[in-house]
UniProtKB/TrEMBL annotation, chain A:
Membrane topology: Multi-pass membrane protein
Similarity field: Belongs to the binding-protein-dependent transport system permease family. HisMQ subfamily.
Xref: Gene3D superfamilies: MetI-like (1.10.3720.10)
Compartments reported by the entry: Cell inner membrane; Cell membrane
Keyword match Oxidoreductase: no
A GO biological process held by the record: amino acid transport
Residues of the ABC transmembrane type-1 domain: 19-207
This protein's UniProt keywords: Amino-acid transport, Cell membrane, Membrane, Transmembrane, Transmembrane helix, Transport
Pfam (any one): BPD_transp_1
Signal peptide region: none
Domain of life, source organism: Bacteria
Protein name: Ectoine/hydroxyectoine ABC transporter permease subunit EhuD
TrEMBL record, chain B:
Secretion signal span: 1-27
Organism: Sinorhizobium medicae (strain WSM419)
PANTHER family: ARGININE-BINDING EXTRACELLULAR PROTEIN ARTP, MEMBRANE-BOUND LYTIC MUREIN TRANSGLYCOSYLASE F
Keywords of the record: Plasmid, Signal
Domain Solute-binding protein family 3/N-terminal stretches: 40-268
Location(s) in or outside the cell: Periplasm
GO CC annotations on file: periplasmic space
MF terms in GO: ectoine binding
An example Gene Ontology biological process: ectoine transmembrane transport
Tagged with keyword Signal: yes
Family annotation (Pfam families): SBP_bac_3
NCBIfam families: ectoine_ehuB
Name of the featured protein: Ectoine/hydroxyEctoine ABC transporter solute-binding protein
Length: 220, 283
């Protein structure tokens, strides 16, 4: 089997269509994960006991089951109770909730790592709860979180091909459909790999930059 | 790691891939002897009854594997080992040497004939639609789906129906690739797709299993001819294909062929009244 540049040129536009959906799914999934993660973390740390317990259980449950199973559930089972989501929305929600539980743990660890003395000092200097969070706790909690969150973002990006199982026409699915009609896997699959590699490398560079920037704030 | 190191790694990986890609595939001269020695032939199937089916106990049946098993037995290959594959992945899998033959109801179409060596026809069937009761969108052909901007069709990835829909001009985003029969029915029931298209016998099998009064079948689809499949072999394995054909012809003549496929609902006469040449030349 030989590499055919002509074929590459021919399939590029289709793959780029798929790449757009992949990036869109990752971006939306990241937003959902960030928000849901925060909600989970806050519920677990500050809500009354029974709610905090229930939240812990849900988080453990979601973390302990495979994303693919969750996607199938959202896509194929929820319509039975009348919730019919379009494929991409189902995918984004699946990714968002799954990675939200991981993000929740990161948030929790970040916040709990702020020394108790900081809370006490804030109280002693008569800061309000709002001031305590914004000026004392979060500026110390967020920078250590960034590398961990970034890892999850890249992991999530690389998990998006799972969405092809619920008929989202993302990069992997487009490549499969090209391979299906041309009986060639080498070019489409290599290009999928290359696209993912390029995107991951770019995100790594960007996240390094973010990390440095935030650590500088901390030192200031 | 610095950016430059990353780039070097990427370049190294690309070079490796290029080397792997350049290694030529060797064609086997005595494929049949090899299979005899091995004791089994690896076939690709799709789990789409009645063409191919895998029972709850893991036993492979269906008309296509049954015919293949019988023919291979007569060739001196004791058994067949089946692996389930997506339609679109079968031909690349065959070319990559993962299967020795495809016996899955992969209908002969000119572009497939160009990619693989087909045996003489085995199973023939027309195309059908499963859709909501009363056919609310009035869909009777692939062209009707192309003309209705709201109609979405589900079909197996890389299957004949997907190709027919795309050829009829249905845009890619309205051709939903359905992973398997059950998901297809579910998506139809949930209203994610308006039409689920498969060969007549497969649709009938699924619809009768689903037992849903809100689903009806349109068969045959207007403008789509009757297609026949054959066992597909790798290009270069023509000797094996020819040996397969000889035994298949004997099987057809003795009437045993009809005995195998007719309980599944296929017509032996349809397969025997046409040839590979005709089907491969057909538009």
């Amino acid at each position: 089997m030989e590499w055919d540049w002509e074929f590459v040129r021919q399939i590029m536009p289709t793959l780029i269509e798929g790449l757009k959906i992949t990036i869109l799914a990752t971006a939306l999934g990241a937003v959902v994960a960030a928000v849901i993660g925060l909600v989970f973390a806050i519920l677990r740390m500050t809500a009354p006991k029974p709610i905090a317990r229930a939240t812990s259980f849900i988080v453990e449950f979601i973390r302990g089951t495979p994303l693919l199973v969750q996607l199938y559930f959202i896509f194929y089972v929820l319509p039975d109770v009348g919730i019919r989501l379009p494929a991409l929305v189902a995918g984004v929600i699946g990714l968002g909730i799954h990675y939200g539980t991981y993000a929740a743990e990161v948030y929790r660890a970040g916040i709990e790592n702020v020394p108790r003395g900081q809370w006490e000092a804030a109280k002693a200097t008569n800061l309000t709860a709002r001031q305590t969070w914004i000026h004392v706790i979060l500026p110390q909690a967020i920078p250590p979180m960034i590398p961990a969150l970034a890892n999850y973002l890249i992991a999530m990006f690389k998990e998006t091909p799972l969405l092809s199982a619920i008929t989202v026409l993302e990069l992997m699915n487009q490549a499969k459909s090209i391979a299906n009609s041309n009986y060639r896997y080498i070019e489409p699959m290599t290009l999928v790999g290359v696209f993912f590699l390029i995107m991951s490398l770019i995100s790594v560079v960007f996240l390094r930059w973010l990390e440095e920037r935030y650590s500088r704030v901390e030192q200031r | 790691m610095k950016l430059r190191d990353w780039m070097a790694m990427a370049a190294g990986a690309t070079a490796l891939m290029a080397v792997a890609a350049a290694t030529p595939a060797t064609a086997d001269e005595n494929k049949l002897d090899e299979l005899k020695e091995q004791g089994f032939a690896r076939i690709a199937i799709a789990n789409e009854p009645p063409f191919t089916a895998v029972g709850a106990d893991g036993k492979v049946s269906g008309a296509a594997p049954d015919v293949a098993r019988e023919v291979f037995k007569r060739l001196g290959v004791a058994d067949v080992v089946a692996s389930i594959s997506e339609y679109g992945a079968m031909i690349p899998g065959l070319q990559a040497g993962r299967h020795d033959a495809i016996t899955a109801g992969l209908f002969m179409k000119p572009e497939r004939c160009a990619a693989v060596a087909y045996s003489e026809p085995i199973l023939c069937d027309a195309e059908a639609f499963a859709l909501k009761k009363g056919n609310p969108l009035g869909l009777k052909s692939y062209k009707d789906i192309a003309d209705n901007p709201d109609a979405k069709i589900g079909a197996p990835g890389g299957g004949t129906e997907e190709k027919l829909a795309l050829e009829a001009g249905v845009p890619r985003d309205r051709v939903i690739v359905v992973p398997d029969g059950q998901s297809g029915m579910k998506m139809l029931q949930d209203g994610r797709i308006d039409v689920y298209s498969l060969p007549v016998l497969s649709i009938n099998d699924l619809v009768s299993k689903a037992n849903d009064p809100n689903i009806e079948v349109v068969a045959p689809v207007e403008g789509a001819p009757v297609y026949c499949d054959g066992a597909a072999f790798k290009k270069g394995d023509e000797a094996l294909r020819d040996a397969f054909d000889v035994e298949l012809a004997k099987l057809k003549e003795s009437g045993e062929f009809a005995k195998i496929i007719e309980p599944y609902g296929f017509s032996a006469k349809a397969a025997m009244s046409t040839t590979r040449e005709k089907l491969c030349a057909a538009k």
